[in-house]
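Hi Prof. W.,

I finally got the Mitochondrial import inner membrane translocase subunit TIM50 prediction working! I wasn't sure whether to trim anything, so I left the full sequence exactly as given:
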Amino acid sequence: MSAVVLRSRILSNKCRSKITNRRFLSSGVDSSSSNPSRESIIASQSTLSDQSEVPPPPAPEAAPQASGGKAWSFLKYGLIAAITGTAGYAGYLSYKCSYEEVDQKAKALRAAANFAPSEDASAVDKYQGLLYSTAMAVPAKALESYLDLRRLVEENVLEFTEPTSEKLLPDLHPQEQHVFTLVLDLNETLLYTDWKRERGWRTFKRPGVDAFLEHLAKYYEIVVYSDQMNMYVDPVCERLDPNHCIRYRLSRGDTKYQNGKHYRDLSKLNRDPAKILYVSAHAFESSLQPENCVPIKPFKLEGEDTLDTALLDLIPFLEYVARNSPPDIRQVLQSYERKDIAKEFLERSKEYQRRKQEQRQQQGRFWRR
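And this is what came out:
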């Protein structure tokens, strides 16, 4: 019995020792296996970080996107070409045609945009008419916008290109309806303005201008018409004409600006064109009515200009016109064919006196017989 008990104790002790050994081994395996797991986690994290630093390869472009880009570029350049062509055509119309001409040509386009098929037309014709009117609506609307913009621009431009009024002079007194209007230019006609470094600006009166104004003021309505600013014309005329022989003064604001130059528009003077004479050193170049021009030698204070007598030489012709009152002065001036009127009139006067003297001599011979 005692031997059996002893054997059982020995067996139990062996079992306990085996169990403890197993626990120890299992704990060692766990502890040793825990480190590799941690190392594997760290290694995996480093691998992921390394992979995140490397940029991914570019994705290849798809064929549909390339075709879409070409279509967009074609549409863009087509739109730019259409806008450029429209702007160029609008500029050509603005240069070549007046507003009234463009408005006249636009009537056909307006009619096309407002096209309406008849009630008895077929469905196909109605559909085609609807498409046609719809297609013409956009160009018609664009043309209307162009005409509105051009009208607005021309109205603003006219303030700077046209004279300030349709009637630059007041109505003539009823008792002076027979009086001729003598329009005089200022620079190089009645005076000369010069500038030099040592003395600045100076204005010189033309020889004989005082006698010219005083004598012709008895026969004419004298008007000064200059392309200079009124701030220059007014004080110069005050010094030039202390006796107030000049009735009216017109300056740059009363001229017509055309082709980069200021022109005298005699049709705006509110006077009969058949009774207007325009005396200027640049008459034909500065007036819109060359048939009313009386050219005169320019006064520039050079050489023998100090002995200039052009104004005094012109008095006999102007006095003759005022005394005889021809029905249309334009026909008289046309007969001179743009020659020096003062010299030509003197020669004609001499020729007339010679013929008259011959007639008197012939009459005397007749009575002697």
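The radius of gyration is 52 Å. Does that look reasonable to you?

Thanks,
D.
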